[in-house]
From TrEMBL, chains A, B:
Protein name from the UniProt record: Gamma-glutamyl phosphate reductase
Keyword field contains Amino-acid biosynthesis: yes
Family designation: Belongs to the gamma-glutamyl phosphate reductase family.
GO molecular function terms listed in the Swiss-Prot or TrEMBL record: glutamate-5-semialdehyde dehydrogenase activity
Gene3D superfamilies: Aldehyde Dehydrogenase, Chain A, domain 1, Aldehyde Dehydrogenase, Chain A, domain 2
Classification via InterPro entries: Ald_DH/histidinol_DH, Ald_DH_C, Ald_DH_N, Aldehyde_DH_dom, Glu-5-SA_DH, GPR_dom
CDD domains: ALDH_F18-19_ProA-GPR (cd07079)
EC code(s) of this entry: 1.2.1.41
Subcellular location: Cytoplasm
Catalytic activity: L-glutamate 5-semialdehyde + phosphate + NADP(+) = L-glutamyl 5-phosphate + NADPH + H(+)
Function: Catalyzes the NADPH-dependent reduction of L-glutamate 5-phosphate into L-glutamate 5-semialdehyde and phosphate. The product spontaneously undergoes cyclization to form 1-pyrroline-5-carboxylate.
PANTHER family, sorted: DELTA-1-PYRROLINE-5-CARBOXYLATE SYNTHASE, GLUTAMATE SEMIALDEHYDE DEHYDROGENASE
Pfam families reported in the protein's UniProt record: Aldedh
Amino acid sequence: MSAAQPSSLPHDPQSTGAQPTSVRLMGVQARAAARVLRSLPTDRKVAALHAIAAGLRANASAILAANAQDVQAAEASGLPEAMVARLRLDARALDGIAADVEAVSRLPDPVGETTPPSTQPSGIRVSTRRVPLGVLGVIYESRPNVTVDVAALAIMSGNAVILRGGRETVRSNAALEDVIHAALREQNLPAHAAQVIRDPARERMLELLKLDDLVDAIIPRGGAGLHRYCVENATVPVIVGGIGVVHIYLDPSFTHDPADVTRAAAIIHNAKVQKPSACNALDTLLIHEQALGTLPDIARDLHASGVTLRADPPAHAVLSAAGIAAEPATAADFGTEFLALTASVRTVASLDEALDFIATHGNHTDVILTRDDAQARRFVQDVDSAAVIVNASPRFNDGGQLGLGAEVAISTQKLHARGPMGLRELTTTKWVVEGNGEVRG
Amino acid sequence: MSAAQPSSLPHDPQSTGAQPTSVRLMGVQARAAARVLRSLPTDRKVAALHAIAAGLRANASAILAANAQDVQAAEASGLPEAMVARLRLDARALDGIAADVEAVSRLPDPVGETTPPSTQPSGIRVSTRRVPLGVLGVIYESRPNVTVDVAALAIMSGNAVILRGGRETVRSNAALEDVIHAALREQNLPAHAAQVIRDPARERMLELLKLDDLVDAIIPRGGAGLHRYCVENATVPVIVGGIGVVHIYLDPSFTHDPADVTRAAAIIHNAKVQKPSACNALDTLLIHEQALGTLPDIARDLHASGVTLRADPPAHAVLSAAGIAAEPATAADFGTEFLALTASVRTVASLDEALDFIATHGNHTDVILTRDDAQARRFVQDVDSAAVIVNASPRFNDGGQLGLGAEVAISTQKLHARGPMGLRELTTTKWVVEGNGEVRG
């Protein structure tokens, strides 16, 4: 009989962990690892995550030493302090990362969920079964915690992952990969389930983006430039996200009761100030002209927290009359994601005008503050964004806050996943058909 | 107060239907139409489809005249008769297309389905709502029925669609678009809900592929070259499909009872012969060496139907001994989609060898014929293809056969949709959050 054709490189739980010579080879190894991972029972995935968490704690000094080298090199290269801060780990942060891995291990495993079979007229029984995506490519910037978070989410959802972190975290990520590989080997699992591209050259990232015969999805985590680069260069499907303009529409019905004005001010303050660098932070306040009288109350708190308001003429006039500094808005201040303590204010004459504005500029998170249920229903129906929120802060558009437990990224595209992506969004389904000799007529 | 910024071009139900000057303008118009469609109640979508079906019947002579011109031009240009046949419409075919539109109107509308709200620790109530994708771009080859089928599926799922058919069907598609537009206007709906790119230049298709700020998904329907072109050039997310190698593994347990051998022969014959040009037709038979004795019985029927078998040495020897002609297989005959009356045969020593082979070459539809339940379970678990089938023909991997009612395409990628895509696969979800003044702590 014919010799078996070599199907793919076998996974090798005892491999040395030496860096493969090419990203394509990493892809082949990831595919082989994914075949093992996709059939793992939940308890083995949980055990792998526990081993990783234990490894992080046991190897803290080696990881922190590697991280200190990254920090030193980043400082020497003149990287801005804000960037260096994102890169820096300490014992407490590392313990938090290990605890996050343990938290992922407690999430429900979506793999294997099966729909009830339906019998078709032909006699076949049809169901779908939830299965891992296969091999993920995740590209991110300088936070080393992402390396571990994403590896944990990938393994728990039965996927292999190829990680490409920032140039500034190469040593930290290498140390973290060593710990992950040792933990996987200890559990007799393929170390290639989570691989880090250690060569920071952009060409390696480009190879990953074009590996469509081996990688099932690319998930970029970073700024608009990174997402754009992936969309324009990848042949692997990309899940874009994280970028988008956040609006709050304030309806007059939410300003009749002084307690509501206080609530509105608190929501708008929380939306802008709690974490201005987040993608779900407020960018543009759309205020009904009949609610303009409350704008000074809202603006005072923002102003006190250092927020710069860029207001259209009616809003600017109201703020000036109340003695609150604001800049005049230009066209560029609308449809812009600020990622800073800046927000624009635009006056609208109606809910319709607000909806038209959001139809043009929104896609991420949009909020209505209203006491009119019919208006709330119209807003929720008409606004076509990843998250539509009534009477609460846009900052709730977050995997943890929406009940996913953890998130790998926030998608703003519509295919596959929209909004925060948890374990379930790292899976797909396959059709399962059972018959008894049926043929198609 | 400030003047409202023009949010987007308004849809104009009374527009003349003149061809827009650019694909980008079509995209802007499609987006505006999509905003109307996404909130339509089911009955208005049903009425639109009925109006389209009625329009097709009422305008049959104009459509068939345009189609006759396309056919004449195709014949004059020397297009192969098989291609001309795919292009040709007659009164009966057109009536069938209208009936298909009516069938789509009877499918359940997935839009608006909402998950039960969950209250989170913060107090917010969270649910997801099923909504249309928005604007679809569908690129296909010469069958004019696709123009109507896809428009009907798009409208029924609340999406706008931009259609780009083959160069050979320009006149047919223009006539069909005229009918669809008239029907939509009659229903006071935006005609731009379904637009045909009438200019067959490849540059227009390329514009569509790069319209990622306006188009939510590209769905190619055609050969491998078209899919590859889309993947390599699109910045809009692409759902690839239709391409893939189909395997049937025949286990000895399915050959002990002569009735099973008859069933196996019937399934394999159906898989290869019923529609050899289909993507779910058999490519490679993997036969266990202990089942080789039944290969002549299986091959005789195939042979009688004009199938060429390309067999590996053990299979070839068995066929030769039985006096059945077969060609020797080369490496290129495995992992190859034939789309013709050709199939390859490979002998394997075990289920494991079959699984390894499928792990390398499969991703579309794979079948096991077995009487051993444990083997069936292993096959279903390990094979990572869009459809995994036990003891039935691979030809069942089809939207109609699996119970979707209709399909817009068959996806072989893993993101978003896998296997046949019906109305539900043309939708996405959005997060809906209701609060009472909650802010994030």
